[in-house]
């Protein structure tokens, strides 16, 4: 079961149509390349292939078929959102997800308080609870 079926690389991304991210902080990195499909962009982003930074998102220009790999996402400081009909934004779910799946070992989100507002315990701390 499942043999011969390839996993769609877009499964790991959250899509927002007609949106582009603009970097205000000049230290944030972007790399672009012509690619025919969003699947190809997603595969490269997931593998960080040919990138000098961890890819957190990509924007695909449907008009020019150009992929823009981003070292940031919509939650990053120094970034602003821009409505743009040519682009679709794809953000890695691991970086924008506000929930923990399983034991949370791969969680990279930004939530640091409990539902009731209590500050979370740091991973490297054994106080107030042991792991």
How much helix, percentage-wise, in residues? Answer: 10-25%
Low-pLDDT stretches are none
Shape: globular
Oligomer class? single chain
CATH architecture of the domain at 9-95: 3-Layer(bba) Sandwich
Reported by name, the CATH topology of the domain at 9-95 is Hepatocyte Growth Factor
What is the total tally of β strands? Answer: 5
Largest sheet: 5 strands, antiparallel
Strand content: 25-35%
The total of helices stands at 2
Descriptive report:
The chain has a domain of 87 residues: 3-Layer(bba) Sandwich (Hepatocyte Growth Factor). A 5-stranded antiparallel sheet has the order 1-5-3-4-2. 11% of the residues lie in helices and 31% in strands. The radius of gyration is 17 Å and the shape is globular. The mean pLDDT is 88. It is mainly beta. This is HGF factor. It holds the Pfam family PAN_1. One of its GO terms (molecular function) is signaling receptor binding. Keywords: Disulfide bond, Kringle.
Structural topology:
Blueprint: E1 13-23, E2 30-34, H1 38-47, E3 57-61, E4 66-70, E5 79-92, H2 93-96
Antiparallel strand pairs: 1-5, 2-4, 3-4, 3-5
Domain Apple: 5-94
GO molecular function: endopeptidase activity; signaling receptor binding
Domain Kringle: 98-131
């Amino acid at each position: 079961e499942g043999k011969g079926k390839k996993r769609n690389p877009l499964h790991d991304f959250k899509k927002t149509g007609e949106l582009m991210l603009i970097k205000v902080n000049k230290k944030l990195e972007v790399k672009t390349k012509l690619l025919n499909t969003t699947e190809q962009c997603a595969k490269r982003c997931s593998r960080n292939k040919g990138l000098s930074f961890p890819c957190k998102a990509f924007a695909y220009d449907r008009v020019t078929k150009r992929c823009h790999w981003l070292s940031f996402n919509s939650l990053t400081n120094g970034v602003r959102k821009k409505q743009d009909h040519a682009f679709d934004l794809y953000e890695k779910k691991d970086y924008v997800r506000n929930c923990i799946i399983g034991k949370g070992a791969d969680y990279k989100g930004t939530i640091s308080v409990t539902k009731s507002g209590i500050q979370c315990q740091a991973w490297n701390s054994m106080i107030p609870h042991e792991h």
